Protein: DNA-binding response regulator
Amino acid sequence: MSAVRVLLADDQTLVRAAFAMLVESAGDMEVVGQAGTGREAVALARSARADLVVMDIRMPDLDGIEATRLIAADEDLAGVKVLVLTTYDTDEHIVEALRAGASGFLVKDTRPADLLDAIRTVAAGEALLSPGPTARLIARFLRSPAAPVTGGPDCLSDREREVLTLVARGLTNTEIGEALGVSPLTAKTHVSRIMGKLGARDRAQLVIVAYESGLVSPGSM
Structure:
């Protein structure tokens, strides 16, 4: 497999340098660019052919949310994933970032090994959404039904609703398969079918629609 091509977007030079050293130390990924503003991140995502952008939310010129929205809306960047960095408990924009098209979020003071694992997870097409923090954030900041999807759980079968609930709780395809007594491939097929029915870009948007529809509530986590 080819190395994951990572673009780092953060307005702090030292932070970018530290992340770059960490990413380059892994044998399965490489840094293909560094951006100090949101506009630079969008431009480099196009020119550097990045697979994944590690995006800080708070940046000058264009913040990480708007940069994520531009990347997600660009058909030429359809395969580019965005992993948002947030300062948990103080950043009130994480739900908007997920709505904008981010595939997950990570707390900025996370352990180095966890950052590398997060990059691998998101690059592989999984949403990085820790169940506890996700529930609390959505409960606190979700206000109006504005998820970028075309349908709701009513269009799903009972089994698909069950799978959607497990996705919203942060389970991987392997864990969903174990919970339902099916193979990871079957679980993946269910998830893909659900995304197609709901018009969701990725698993992160499935989490949003699950919470907004009331299928999953923070108290059920």
